[in-house]
Specification:
The chain is of the alpha/beta class. It is built from 21 helices and 32 strands. The strands form eight sheets. It has a seven-stranded parallel β-sheet with strand order 13-14-12-15-16-11-17, sandwiched between helices. Strands 5-2-1-4-3-6 form a six-stranded mixed β-sheet. A six-stranded parallel β-sheet has the order 18-28-27-19-26-25, with helices on both faces. A hairpin with a 2-residue loop joins β7 and β8. The chain is globular, with a radius of gyration of 29 Å. The protein starts with a strand and ends in a 5-residue tail after the last strand.
Length: 739
């Protein structure tokens, strides 16, 4: 009998393995490795989905259950995708099915319906008509004959028939009545409409051409890092590299870190490559996502543009993967599987003999270290496009301003700059990396702070609806003015995007302000429309969170202002200086991309901070030298890998106890391993110790991410899971995003 080894959905780490099932006769000719199957699981024979990972002949079938349903005709996991599944499971410590789920295209996802597998996403259909070829004696009018002949070899909707044949609906109805037209439902035509003429070539500056020539002349497997200052013209190099790749008969992929960056990048890429471009990101509607996925699978899409998860697009014959703003933390998933898109891209590039190109004005410390030490090819672009100067960066010390009576959310100087910009028909960007109105509610009498019942974080006041919101679990509470503990007066302090918008309007009532944050970009096309409106100069000022800080290119923006950077500078994470420097440098780079008189303003209570000074001078190299020395001294990446083992429970004492138990297992087993240096920190609660009622503890392990270490960690996990007294949930996160 044919036996299938199946990875099962909803498996936990303690029973994540291949489960054996008998393949019934009706599926034996079609089933293959990678097929999606439906199987009975457990003592109750609950139906679950799975992916076939192996097939073998065996006479030993005693106790094995039969596969209930198998889907092979629509889609199965490809041989290469299965390689990725094994790679992701190996490197992220997820389950088999969690890894498989990442590589199953949208068009190949199933659900359980009436005890069978059913496609989860179906393309919308429409009614179409074709000619019923038969002999008939009725004489047709000229218009009827025209429609009948038109439909002899085609299927068209009523609207298409009316438009193309220039007839009324009555003509079609008469033919249907005579039985000369027959109808059926067909998938809606979803071809892209790109009637604009395509740009035929792109002309590079000497600096851009040099980088292009360097990359295309090297044929080894090393990744490439383009380190180019903001507005140096990296996008033009991307276009030329993609064009070069397509001319070689191969396909290309371009990843960006934020949905907010995709509209401008899509517009640029489509202006050169038109309908062969496919777009993938989380804001697509189900219909649009399905359309894009089928376009890729059919081979019609040759250039894929998208955010992190687009790395798993089922594109074949890949010649190049470009990752823009590679330093951004959004390329790392914090949900299982906790993969790095850059690491996955490196795996895909090696397997496909494709080029991997990373690019940034502020490369991650790890990437720049690898480039400086010969593991990456380094390409530099030190000058702005057309030799435009960087904006003049002004630091405003808010402590000194307060002594002079200037205590507003924005200083008087910034308000003056905004006013001048409006007068001169120029535009401005204000960055405040906090949404909402006020960030903290504090009782004046007992100093109690208003916190979420489900999460260990302060509630944020939102003016719309006078509500308090938790930005972790999204629970909302009615706004209150009296302390629930002592009845004292609640004072709301701190500010977010809403208060900044309100303050500017109080100073400049005629200012046209566009606010861009998670609250205003809920709709699927919100990012695209907002950025288009700002580019069309329907607004004077763009106020937003990090989504306005990077990658955007507006010709008339000659002022940017950064608020609230002090919070980013004072975090506990080892890489907080890097995050703050990158954010400052990126947002400064939004100004003066096409003008000579640009200004960038940083409002701070810590004006002597060396990170602010380095960002003011645009001195990445000096920042890198300081940061790499700090990391080497303290053994932080790139001199180690940070491995976080997390423990979750609805009881804090359980998470604390189980994390301590895990540490003891490490201490007992580690001496048996040779050449495996590691340092264990903790256990300790997360900075945000409770989210959605779940308490979180962690162990942080400084290690070398080798197979030896990963095998050792699996031994520890297996021993931990064997003891049923250990009740906390457990997951592993390699190089996590720091809270």
């Amino acid at each position: 009998m044919l036996i299938a080894g199946v990875a099962i959905d909803k498996a936990t780490l303690n029973f994540d393995r291949e489960f054996s099932y008998v393949v019934p006769e009706q599926f034996q000719n079609d089933i293959r490795i990678g097929s999606i199957v439906l199987i009975p699981f457990g003592s109750g024979n609950t139906l679950r989905m799975g992916v076939v990972l192996s097939l073998k002949e065996s006479e030993e079938i005693k106790g094995l259950k039969n596969i209930v349903d198998a889907k092979t005709e629509d889609w199965s996991v490809s041989e290469f995708a299965l390689k990725m599944v094994k790679y992701i499971k190996e490197t992220t410590f997820c389950t088999y099915y969690e890894a498989a789920r990442t590589v199953i295209p949208y068009s190949g996802q199933y659900r359980i319906a009436n005890g069978r597998l059913e496609l989860k996403h179906k393309a919308p259909t429409e009614k179409v008509y074709t000619a019923n070829i038969l002999e008939f004696t009725d004489k047709l009018t000229p218009k009827q004959q025209k429609v009948y002949d038109y439909l002899k070899n085609s299927h068209k909707t009523i609207k298409q028939i009316c438009d193309d044949c220039i007839v009324t609906r009555a003509v079609i109805d008469k033919l249907i009545e005579k039985g000369l037209l027959i109808s059926q439902f067909a998938e809606k035509n979803s071809e892209d409409d790109n009637s604009q003429p395509l740009k035929q070539d792109i002309f590079l500056t000497n600096q851009q051409q040099k980088v292009f020539d360097e990359i295309t002349s090297i044929n080894d497997s090393k990744p490439h890092l383009i380190y180019g200052v903001t507005s140096s013209g990296k996008s033009a190099v991307f276009i030329k590299l993609i064009k070069h790749t397509l001319e070689q008969g191969k396909n290309a992929m371009l990843l960006v870190p934020e949905i907010s960056l995709t509209p401008q990048m899509i517009e640029l890429v489509k202006s050169y490559f038109g309908n062969v471009v496919s777009v993938l990101h989380s804001k697509l509607t189900p219909t649009e996502r399905l359309k894009q996925n089928k376009k890729i699978q059919s081979g019609k899409a040759r250039v894929i543009v998208g955010t992190r998860s687009a790395i798993f697009a089922p594109v074949e014959n890949l010649g190049i993967i470009i990752i823009d703003e590679e330093h951004e933390k959004t390329f790392k998933s914090e949900n299982s599987p906790r993969y790095s898109a850059i690491r996955v891209a490196s795996f895909i590039a090696k397997e496909n003999s494709a080029r991997l190109v990373l690019a940034s004005a502020t490369p991650s410390v790890e990437s720049y270290y690898l480039a400086k030490n010969g593991f990456y090819h380094l390409h530099t672009m030190p000058n702005r496009y057309n030799d435009m100067p960087m904006p003049n960066v002004e630091i405003i010390d808010m402590r000194m301003q307060a002594l002079n009576g200037d205590t507003g959310v924005l200083s008087n100087a910034v308000i003056k700059y905004l006013s001048d910009n409006i007068r001169d028909n120029k535009q401005s960007i204000i960055l405040i990396n906090r949404r909402g109105y006020s960030t903290v509610g504090v009782c004046k009498d007992c100093q109690n702070t208003l916190q979420c019942d489900n999460c260990s974080v302060n509630l944020v006041k939102h003016k719309s609806g006078n509500k308090l919101c938790c930005h972790y679990c999204n629970r909302t509470y009615p706004g209150i003015e009296k302390c629930p503990v002592c009845g004292g007066q609640i004072q709301y302090i701190g500010y977010g995007t809403q208060k900044v918008e309100e303050y500017i309007l109080s100073c400049l009532p005629k200012a046209r302000i566009l606010r861009m944050d998670a609250d205003t970009t809920v709709k699927s096309d919100a990012h695209t429309q907002m950025l288009k409106d700002f580019a069309d100069k329907k607004y004077d000022i763009l106020v937003g969170t990090q989504m306005v800080a990077k990658g955007l290119d507006f010709k008339d923006v000659n002022l940017v202002c950064v608020l609230g950077i002090d919070g980013a500078l004072n975090q506990m994470a080892y890489n907080s200086n890097e995050s703050a420097f990158n954010l400052l440098t990126q947002v400064i780079g939004r100004a003066g991309r096409w003008t000579n008189d640009a200004i960038a303003v940083i409002q701070t209570y810590d004006s002597s901070n060396h990170i602010i000074t380095l960002a003011q001078n645009g001195d990445y190299d000096k920042f890198y030298q300081s940061e790499i020395a700090f990391r080497k001294l303290n053994i932080y990446p790139p001199f180690c890998t940070m491995c976080q083992v997390a423990f979750t429970s609805n009881k804090e004492i359980t998470a604390a106890r189980d994390s301590a138990t895990f540490l003891k297992i490490i201490q007992r087993l580690a001496p048996t391993e040779k050449n495996m240096p590691l340092v264990v920190l903790g256990p300790a609660p997360f900075n945000v110790s409770m989210v959605n009622g779940i308490h979180r503890y962690r162990l942080t392990i400084k290690c070398k991410n080798t197979k030896v270490f990963r095998d050792f960690l699996r031994k520890v996990i297996d021993e931990y899971l064997k003891d049923k007294n250990n009740r906390s949930g457990l997951y592993v996160n390699m190089n996590p995003i720091q809270e």
